[in-house]
Amino acid sequence: MSSLDAFVKDLAAGRIQVVDLTQPLGPDTPVIALPEPFTASPGVTIETLSRYDDGGPAWYWNSLHLGEHTGTHFDAPVHWITGKDQPQNRCDTIPAERFVGPACVIDVSADVKDDADFLLTPERILNWEGEHGRIPAGAWVLLRTDWSKRTDPSDFLNVDETGPHSPGFRKDASELLVERDILGVGVETIGTDAGQAGTFYPPFPNHTIMHGAGKFGLASLTNLDRLPPTGALVVAAPLKIVDGSGSPLRVLAFVER
């Protein structure tokens, strides 16, 4: 029996579970806010073209208007200025095999419960590796914060007079993950940098470092609490948008029961 045959049989028998890591995408999806004079991303607009009516008596379909980086979405290297000259850096040029990889889930949910501005450190990564083994090249590193359990948009964005507050990566943690040659990072927050990352040096260090190294980002994930620290396989394939800097996507994890 081939590996694929075994996989299909295990999937059909329920020995492998499919976990959806994707948030629903619709008009209520929170969108990141940018201060003036920067151009803001629009919210999601869904317009019905026809629904079994005069516009199309036998079919239903919609038109969509949204930014590339909306909801559960993929950040390609070209999204950031540091990645603009990387080879195969756009949604339509990244080889498809780079969307699939093993997942390493680092659980910091207890820390984030006490500190919304929590930052992952290299020491925390090394401690995780001491327990679960070295992060392999080609892995997705997923930061479990349970932030996706914040279902109220204002709580999810968590903005006060000093700006947004949400967890993320310290600069040297992102550098260590690049040394591990991962595919990219995934987070439950609206973006892969911490809410206060605009005040860091450099600003938005995870974007700067990851995309400058040709790595990817996955934002607004959910159900990371249903994944083991290791052993899951993640498929995160963006739409093949020509010259695309990113894309909403459906992220699936395959987990042995």
Describe the structure.
This protein is α/β, with parallel strands linked by helices. It has six helices and 15 strands. The strands form four sheets. The chain has a nine-stranded mixed beta sheet with strand order 1-15-13-5-7-11-12-4-14, with helices on one face. It has a two-stranded antiparallel sheet with strand order 2-3. A hairpin with a 2-residue loop joins strand 2 (45-53) and strand 3 (56-65). Helix 5 (171-179) runs parallel beside helix 6. The longest helix is centred in the middle third of the chain and has 11 residues, at 122-132.
- Structural category: alpha/beta
Percentage of residues assigned to helices: 10-25%
What spatial form do the alpha-carbon principal axes imply? globular
Strand/helix succession: HEEEEEHEHEHEEEHEHEEEE
The biggest beta sheet is recorded as:
9 strands, mixed
Q: What is the tally of helical segments?
A: 6
Question: What order do the strands of the largest sheet run in, or round the barrel if closed?
Answer: 1-15-13-5-7-11-12-4-14
Oligomeric organization of the protein chains: single chain
E-strand count: 15
- Measured on Cα atoms, how large is the radius of gyration? 19 Å
Q: Low-confidence runs (pLDDT<50, min 5 residues)? A: none
Our estimate of the beta-strand percent is 25-35%
